[in-house]
Design brief:
The complex is a heterodimer of chains A (640) and B (294). Chain A has 19 helices and 8 strands. With 640 residues, chain A is α+β, with helices and mostly antiparallel strands. In chain A, strand 4 and strand 5 form a beta hairpin. The longest helix of chain A is centred in the middle third of the chain and has 56 residues. The radius of gyration of chain B is 25 Å and the shape is globular. The N terminus and C terminus of chain B are likely disordered. Chain B is built from 13 helices and no strands. In chain B, helix 12 packs across helix 13. With 294 residues, chain B is an all-alpha fold. The chains are: A alpha+beta (640), B mainly alpha (294). Chains A and B meet through helix 8, helix 10, helix 11, helix 12 and helix 13 of A and helix 1, helix 2, helix 4, helix 5 and helix 6 of B.
Chain lengths: 640, 294
């Protein structure tokens, strides 16, 4: 019985998923088909516009009219020239009468000019960088459902305008055949019932039967999906080739109607958004069978991989239900349903917004994701441990300059790590020293005004630390900051704090010291006040000096409070993002970045998400090691 | 203690001297902000120095006292600048974070304290470990999830969800500790009287845990009110800024509106400082309880 349920659940899951995948794929294919046909048209028209030498006053208008006349059913198009901000030609219904092309663009038509300028910029950027970064064909969806496409027009190697085209909404939606899916789900389940009558209650046989049936059903459906996809793809390419042939047949006569007819290149029309030909259509307008077969093969391999994943999932489900795992899980959930009910909201939130991002971040760290590749699946940009190797394997911390001086490479991980360690040690030392000293003074019995001092000295802790950081950055301003004014009172020269690593470090250290000593002070004060006065009295009777009292009584009783406080403040300071980010901002040249701000800069200023994620994982590992050691030392988690 | 040996103590005037110097250093930046806020100008300098300043001029330039105190910066930051809107954003975000955070933490804390179920230890430990996740690592995926997938970039909802969940571990641990101290007898007695589990939770446990819930609420509020980097990353529309992001905006980049910054900083800090002094003793005990948040 369990195997029957397992088989039903497993195959429902697998066939359902496969159906959904197939549906999504076909939907995508149908919109891709629509888009590619439109691009072929657009590129053909663009080539005509490029080849056309303007002979008359009317400019390009006759060309567009001839094109539309020769190819009935063509969508409306317009040609915009950036020079002179002109509408050179248009077959849009609204551009008639006194608005007929050619004319100057009107104020409310500025988006047209902007788009042409954007396309020109895109082409120029790609050319100057030698990379394909900005899209050279813009395709946007209209709210009504159609597409608006635009392609740059080039004359003598420079972009002089654009051709824009608007297609009507695509009609009809393709749905995969649901009957086949239903059949491949129902048939094995029914078969299983029939055969289990024959097989009886033998567990091994039933399990084997279930696996075989599931695999069979899946294989059947997978083959069906692959065939559907292949047919779709073949139809798509044939349609593209047909459209190309139609355009290629029409263009010479369109051009001939208005001027001479130079050679055309139909094989370049079917292209991607960077105007790179897909090279599936040959110059004569026929399909390149070999390339198509190759493409189909690689697509099938991808689809096969996805289906194999689905199959593995279904098998796991079958095993889970079949061997009683699901029943046990259900029983546990049922028995503790109250507890699980209470923790579900919190756990759900934590999983979606804390744990999933964490593991997703780890996954990103194995890719070279950048801002340009966020929409690509992670498997396509997988680079393995390259990021980690780059971070941890780069030991070029410093080199000798020509004059023999040491030049540090501030972007190097080990420099930043070293800086972070120094930064942490200095800060914690300052915090503990100043805090402890003030606590000892404030603990003096009979000292007047103690509560007043205490409140004032605690203030820095109360102020939000980003405000503190911004205040101190203002005070360290080179020209107007009060710190430099004070230096000048004593006859010094104003210091440009953020131009040397050391002075820059001092500003951050001052800021963080200012805001962190009250914490240590409050902790120490609390511990000091819990030491009974009699102990000191007894020590004095014994003749102990003040220093001896401090060593033998005060320090040991401070230890249990101070050590956890130090442990926490090490982590805080290690991760003190706001102070570094807002006070020094890493100036000069990233020399005063700590690990956490450096990772942030890699992510949100250099947009190297993969590298930044790997950097953060390294930080996490450092903290984890620190935390483990700390746990060993304090056994803080004993009490769970 | 009256007759203790005074000669071993340091003289009180010396201690006072040290304390006064330290207090001056401590409150100087605060006085500096107050001075700029009440100066009515946007300038970073406390006074405009003449071309050839004398020592007296320079001295005047570092004394934190406005020449002609005026509240102009406060009124114009609230009216001419979108700061009032940013404050409202912050208040909404912080209050919603508090409500959601307390709800999530109470239910989860109660379950962790009262029930023994498979996954309890793992859950508690994973909450603890999650405190060690570096913010930047989760920031990139959070950005992708919240902005690209959920479409909640530049919205208060997105911020509230992020803040409430990131505050959960600390709040859960704190509340669990407090629930542990409430004797079980009361609940058992109610159970015998026929009260249902939700009734026990709502009518008996929650009222008893009021002090801890209040502290949790105030922590969540301060977290939502003070958070800077997540808001700066997720929000890029100016009218959706929270107050911290807005304050950074006044003096970031090429903008140097120090008067607005100072006035805004004071407005933002007042509730936080007040809350801080109220919460101080919980802060110390809560923080030393073993949380290691960066």
């Amino acid at each position: 019985m369990r195997f029957a349920v397992g088989l039903a659940v497993g195959s429902a899951l697998a066939i359902g998923l496969a159906y959904a995948l197939l549906a999504a794929e076909r939907r995508q294919a149908s919109s891709a088909r629509y888009e590619r046909l439109a691009v072929v048209r657009l590129r053909a028209l663009t080539e005509a516009v490029e080849k056309f030498r303007v002979p008359s006053e009317e400019g390009l208008q006759p060309l567009l009219i001839a094109w539309k006349a020769r190819l009935p059913g063509s969508p409306p198009a317009r040609v915009v020239a950036t020079q002179g901000i002109r509408l050179e030609a248009s077959t849009f219904p609204q551009d008639v009468g006194d608005k007929a092309a050619p004319r100057r663009l009107e104020r409310e038509e500025k988006p047209l000019f902007d788009q042409a300028a954007r396309l020109r910029a895109a082409v120029e950027t790609n050319r100057s960088e030698g990379a394909l970064r900005a899209e050279e064909i813009e395709i946007t969806k209209k709210p009504s459902g159609g597409l608006r496409l635009a392609c740059p027009v080039e004359r003598d190697g420079a972009v002089v305008g654009m051709v824009q085209m608007e297609t009507p909404a695509a009609s009809g939606r393709i749905r995969p055949n649901a009957a086949v899916a239903l059949l491949s789900f129902a048939a094995p389940v029914a078969l299983f019932f029939l055969l289990s009558r024959v097989a009886g209650e033998r567990k091994g046989v039933l399990a084997l039967l279930a696996v075989v049936l599931l695999a069979g059903a899946l294989a059947f459906y997978a083959l069906h999906s692959l065939r559907v996809l292949e047919t779709d793809r073949r139809e798509l390419e044939t349609a593209v080739a047909e459209e190309t042939r139609a355009q290629a047949a029409a263009l010479p006569s369109v051009l001939a109607a208005v001027s001479a007819s130079p050679a055309i290149h139909p094989e370049t029309w079917d292209s991607d958004e960077f105007r790179r030909p897909r090279s599936l259509v040959k110059a004569d307008g026929n399909l390149d069978e070999e390339r198509l077969r190759h493409e189909l093969g690689s697509r099938a391999a991808q689809a096969g991989k996805a289906l194999a994943g689905v199959g593995a999932l279904a098998m796991a489900m079958l095993a889970f239900v079949g061997f009683g795992g699901a029943a046990r899980l259900g029983a546990t959930l049922c028995k503790n349903r109250e507890a699980y009910l209470y923790i579900t909201p919190a756990i759900l939130g934590m999983i979606v917004l804390v744990f999933f991002p964490f593991f997703y971040g780890i996954a990103i760290s194995f890719t070279d994701q950048t801002i340009y590749t966020t929409s690509k699946p992670l498997s396509e940009i997988f680079v393995g441990l390259t990021n980690y190797a780059q971070i941890l394997g780069d030991f070029h911390i410093a080199r000798r300059a020509a004059d023999g001086a040491l030049v540090f490479n501030y972007l190097n991980f080990y420099w930043t790590f070293l800086f972070t360690v120094v930064w942490t040690i200095c800060n914690v030392t300052i915090g503990v020293t100043v805090g402890l000293m003030l606590a000892l003074i404030l603990n003096t019995p009979g000292l007047a005004l103690r509560p007043a001092y205490r409140v004032l000295l605690i203030l820095p802790w109360a102020v939000p630390n980003y405000i503190t950081a911004l205040i101190w950055r203002g005070m360290f301003h080179q020209q107007f900051g009060v710190i430099n004014q004070m230096i000048q009172i004593f006859g010094g020269q104003p210091v440009s704090w953020f131009e040397k690593p050391f002075t820059s470090f001092l500003t951050a250290l001052t800021t963080n010291g200012w805001l962190s000593f009250p914490f240590m002070m409050v902790i120490s004060l609390g511990a000091l006040q819990s030491i009974p006065g009699e102990i000191y009295e007894a020590a004095r009777v014994e003749g102990a000096t003040r220093w001896q009292q401090f060593r033998a009584i005060t320090l040991p009783s401070l230890k249990p409070a101070l050590i956890p406080a130090i442990i926490i403040s090490v982590v805080w300071t290690f991760n003190m993002f706001n102070i570094i980010y807002l006070v020094t901002a890493g100036e000069p040249a990233g020399s005063t970045e700590i690990l956490i701000t450096q990772a942030y800069k890699f992510a949100f200023q250099k947009y190297r998400y993969g590298y930044a994620a790997a950097y953060s994982v390294v930080i996490f590992l450092i903290l984890l090691i620190y935390g483990t050691i700390q746990n060993r030392a304090t056994k803080a988690t004993e009490a769970i | 203690m009256a007759g203790s040996k005074r000669e071993e103590q340091l003289p009180h005037w010396l201690l006072h001297a040290v304390l006064i110097v330290m207090t001056l250093v401590t409150i100087y930046p605060i006085l500096w902000v107050l001075t700029i806020a009440f100066s009515g100008k946007q300038s970073l300098a406390l006074v405009d120095l003449p071309a050839a300043p004398t020592t007296a001029d320079r001295l005047r330039a570092v004394v934190p006292w406005p020449g002609h105190p005026t509240a102009a910066n406060f009124t114009s930051v609230m009216t001419d600048q979108p700061f009032a809107r940013w404050l409202v954003n912050s208040a909404i975000v912080a209050l919603a974070t508090t409500a959601l955070g307390v709800f999530l933490a109470c239910t989860a804390g109660y379950a962790f304290s009262r029930f023994r179920f498979p996954g309890r230890r793992v859950g508690l430990m994973s909450f603890l470990v999650s405190q060690m996740f570096p913010g930047v690592l989760t920031l990139i995926p959070l950005y992708i999830i919240v902005v690209k997938w959920l479409g909640l970039g530049s919205t208060r909802t997105g911020l509230v969800l992020c803040y409430a969940t990131t505050a959960i571990p600390f709040c859960v641990w704190m509340l669990k500790g407090y629930f542990d101290t409430i004797p079980k007898d009361l609940e058992e007695a109610a159970l015998i009287d026929g009260a249902s589990a939700p009734t026990i939770f709502l009518r008996i446990v929650l009222p008893l845990a009021k002090p801890a819930i209040a502290v949790t609420a105030l922590f969540s509020f301060m977290w939502g009110w003070n958070e800077f980097i997540l808001a700066a990353t997720l929000i890029d529309k100016e009218d959706m800024y929270t107050a911290p992001v807005g304050l950074g905006f006044f003096v970031g980049g090429f903008s140097q509106q120090w008067g607005y910054f100072a006035a805004g900083a004071i407005i933002v800090s007042i509730p936080v400082v007040a809350l801080f002094f109220y919460l101080q003793k919980y802060l110390v005990s809560g923080l030393t309880a073993g949380s290691v948040k960066g």
